[in-house]
Amino acid sequence: MIHDRSLWSRLWSTAVWVVTGFFVINLLALIASVVVSSFGTRWLGTWLPVAWTSKWYAASWGEFDLGEVLIVTFEVAFLVVALSGLLGVTAAYALARRDFPGKRALMLLFLLPMLVPPITFGIPLATVLYRTGVAGSMAGVVLANLVPAVPFVILVMIPFIEQIDPRIEAAARVFGADTFKLFRHVLLPLFTPAILAALLLVLVRTLAQFELTFLVSGPTSQTLVVALYYAVFASGVRAVQSIDAMAVVYMISVLIWLVVALRFVNPTQIVSRAKRQQAS
Asked: Which of 38-42, 92-96, 161-165, 172-176 is predicted least confidently?
């Protein structure tokens, strides 16, 4: 019986590794094909292009106005980061320090934009924004992206805030600290690592957010991921290599910020801290 369980355990472990390896290999092959295509001249019926060139990046930069698109992308991302940090940290502190009727229902409400597909609430949200005349502008894109960003900051921040002993704040009050001084000199230094982690992850999520941005963006408020979609599916004839070059620029932009984010936050730490808090 023990031998059978050990055999099934080994078979299951082997199957998991095979499936994971197959997925990783396919993902790397897909990325490699896009990168190779972005540097190739002609690539028909051969394993590698006939010759190599970097002209497609210059062509993509001019054809798709990548400079302006990148500026809009980072403007949207940083505005979402700033506003979600301001709103999310404040709300997380109130939820972590206060008990009130309906708190669990409110937490569930915050979870919904992260659990359901963005398209399910994106269409009604876009309808409201178009009726109010906000959609199609930078403000509309920022507001749409705040819907999942603020709950994300709240859910990341709450476990960190709950770990801080409230007696520290009480002691600061005893020594004469008002609300502003308490936040600036006591809470902010303690919250900084968690705030940085949450906001960096929000930045990466916003750069990769397609559905909500696509539904409410206009010609002058498209982020890079939406511009890439239009480059692929809009009418007209475009060189595949220039589109692939645009895709590589997008991948590098997201990858850089993802690497920076992972330098400040370990996702397993967030999960383990949340579990310890629930257990206590």
From this structure: 172-176
Nearest residue to 160 via CA among 113, 196, 115: 196
Backbone angles phi, psi at 135, to 5 degrees: -65, 150
Count other C-beta atoms under 10 Å from residue 175's C-beta.
Answer: 7
2 or 190: which carries more pLDDT confidence?
190
Query: For the chain, what is the radius of gyration of the CA atoms?
Result: 24
pLDDT, average across residues 205-219: 88
Same domain, 187 and 99: yes
How many domains is the chain built from?
2
Ramachandran class of 133: left when φ > 0, alpha when ψ lies in -120 to 50, beta otherwise = left
Averaged over 177-198, what is the pLDDT? Answer: 80
27 & 77 share domain: no
Helices (H) and strands (E) in the chain, counts: 13, 0
Same domain, 15 and 131: no
Tell me which residue of 205, 254, 203, 202 sits closest to 228, measured CA to CA: 254
